[in-house]
Amino acid sequence: MSVDLRGRAAIVGMATAGTGEAPGFSAMELLGQAALAAVADAGLTMGDIDGVFAATSSHAFPTMSVVEYLGLRPRHFDGTNVGGSSFELHLLQATLALEAGLCDAALICYGSNQRTAGGRLVSMSEPQWHETPYHPRHPITAYGLAASRHMHEYGTTRENLADVALAARDWANLNPDAFARGPLTKEEVLASRMISDPLTKADCCLVTDGAAACVLVRADRARDLAAKPVYFLGGGAANWHRSIVAMPDLTTTAAVESGPRALEMAKVGREELDLVMLYDAFTINTVLFLEDLGFCPKGEGGRFVGDGRIAPGGELAVNTNGGGLSCVHPGMYGLFLIAEAVAQIRGQAGERQIADCDLALCHGNGGTLSSQCTAILGSEATL
Amino acid sequence: MSDIDTSRQGPQATYQAFLAQGRFMIQRSRETGEHVFWPRVAAPGGAGDLEWVAPSGNGTVYAITVNRARSGDRNIALIELAEGVRMMSTLPRVETAPIGAPVTARIEEAADGPRVVFDLTGGDAA
Description:
The complex is a heterodimer of chains A (about 375) and B (about 130). With about 375 residues, chain A is an alpha/beta fold. Chain A has helices at about 25-40, 60-70, 85-100, 115, 140-155, 160-170, 185-190, 220, 255-265, 285-290, 300-305, 325, 335-345, and strands spanning about 10-20, 50-55, 75-80, 105-110, 195, 200, 210-220, 230-240, 275-280, 360-365, 370-380.
């Protein structure tokens, strides 16, 4: 037996807070502001929220912390933490809970002050004992290893990876909320400081503050609320490993399974997608996910991103907010993929708005290319 | 139903005890012959009949990165052992090495304990 979840729930409120730098605020204070704004955006009150979904980098029991801080009394909650991909999974879990009647208004939220609190990635990820003697610097060591293998097998070059960073910056330059703006040349990217071969500082996502939150309700209720609903059309997850040591093939992620699962639930072909939001913690991610989600053949991702194909004006709109590379990356970025998809589908993306954006794919990545969660969002026209 | 016998130490402690004796040991299923690394209570394929065997010590570099830091550069590699399993390690005697390069294991006494490291087979000219 299976339940058709396509279009059964919708995002009716969305907000971000503290994108970039927010000195003087704790992670929970940022999260709280995003949550309050998302609920207000939906035209609801905090008393309406009876489902809470949260994962953060600094709370062992995130839903408890959120519930107390916001004075909520939820009857359903889920703090599943699969790293940066948690929030794409939460969309699926929230839709299931709404459809099952476990809750009527679900809040999904995240917040971090990692930039102003220390300027380093905050993570609760425990060391893997069989890796510890070699002192990896995760996550970048794992992604450097994956990039080295992709270069070896498919001839991908640092110039190819630079094209990903340049496209992200070009989009960020159209987004006033993006943290890293300004001109960036290929020469500058290639001359950037090497951190973990072959990845340089320019291949790495930002370390920023930031919080985001969204509210989902069942589709029948969504139509009566203030904001233009953005419907959940499909979601899929896949996970094969935890440590990079155990990743079966460093050039192929479990997105090859999560993507088709989400598209099948959404009854959508990838050629129909108007917007593709990919979790770009490092430039190699964009290459891997374009391949694994079927936008180009395996091994061709590096060449695919050339000639401005994923930059503004290119044939495929990818990471239009500027991505984790140039917009925002507060430790776990997955909810910001959703925030941009909502902005684009609502037509609120300003200078970077893409024409007729009805269908978006959000692909979250967690751990060291470990958890892969894909969600498809659509406008009312896609129902 | 009876409780699982845990009177002897688990696979992680066993691996580390071998290492402390100067022995590099990995697991293998008696029935399927499948090797397993890192050590656990069952093979990923499900086989629970794991015994400890000495690998050949031969392998190749599957992937490699060099962590660049003020304190010094050091490589971290994924090594594919001849037995078909992969492990994280390092090649302490070279800055880096080509993917596919044949390597040989040895046990090194590091500051935080013994560990398996690899050298390029037949010399260290990277």
